[in-house]
Amino acid sequence: MDKAEIRKKYKKLRQNLNEEDIEALSLEIANRSLELSIWEADYYHLFLPISSKKEVNTEFLLHILQGKDKSIVISRSNFDTLEMEHFLLQENTKIKVSEFGIPEPENGVRIDPELLDVIFVPLLAFNLLGHRIGYGKGFYDRFLSLCRPESVKVGLSLFEAEEKFIHENMDFPLDYCITPKKIYGFKNSNLYL
C-alpha cells in the first residue's frame, strides 16, 4: 500500500471508533507507557488531540506527567511555514482550538526543541521499522529534525503496526510506539527498556 491508501484506511478505522472506544484505548496506552524507562527525563513534548480526527486522548499521559512533576511542552502550528512553535505548559497557559481544530497554546514561555528529552508523536499508522505516517504536511518531521538525536521519540497509536510501507528518507523513525496491546521498540530502543 502507498501512503495515500494507508491514510485512507486508518482514517476510516478511526471513524468507526466511538468516544468510549477512544477513551478506553487511550487509557490503555497511558497505562502501558509506564512500562517504558523514560520517566527520569525533564522535558516532555505532548500533543493535544484533535477530537474531530479521533486522535489518542493524551489527557491521561498529561496527568501522569503532571503527577511526576515534569516540564510539559505543547505546540502551536503555523500553516503558512508548516513549522511548529513550542511552549511550556503552565497553570496560566490559555488553550484555544485553532481554525484547523487543533488545541494550541495562545502564548507562554517558548522552549527550544533541543531541550526536549521525550517527544510523544501523533500518527495515523506506523510500520515494524518505526516509520510513521501522519497527515502529510510534514510538521513533525521538520520538528524532529530540530531535536537532539538522543531525544526519545514515542509514537501513540490506537492500532497495531502495518507490516510495511514505503517511507521517505526525510522521515524520522520512532524509538517506540505504544498501542493499547503492546509497546513496539525500534533501532536503539533497547537502551531505554
Automatic annotation (TrEMBL):
Record flagged with keyword Ligase: yes
Gene3D superfamilies for the chain: NagB/RpiA/CoA transferase-like
InterPro entries cross-referenced by the UniProt entry: FTHF_cligase, FTHF_cligase-like_sf, NagB/RpiA_transferase-like
Protein residues bound to ATP: K3, A4, E5, I6, R7, R132, I133, G134, Y135, G136, K137, G138, F139, Y140
UniProt GO MF annotations: 5-formyltetrahydrofolate cyclo-ligase activity; ATP binding; metal ion binding
Cofactor names: Mg(2+)
GO biological process, one term: folic acid-containing compound biosynthetic process
Assigned EC number: 6.3.3.2
Coiled-coil portions: 3-30
Binding site for substrate: I50, E55
Keyword annotations: ATP-binding, Coiled coil, Ligase, Magnesium, Metal-binding, Nucleotide-binding
One Pfam family linked to the record: 5-FTHF_cyc-lig
Reaction catalysis annotation: (6S)-5-formyl-5,6,7,8-tetrahydrofolate + ATP = (6R)-5,10-methenyltetrahydrofolate + ADP + phosphate
Top-level EC class: ligase
Family note: Belongs to the 5-formyltetrahydrofolate cyclo-ligase family.
Protein's UniProt name: 5-formyltetrahydrofolate cyclo-ligase
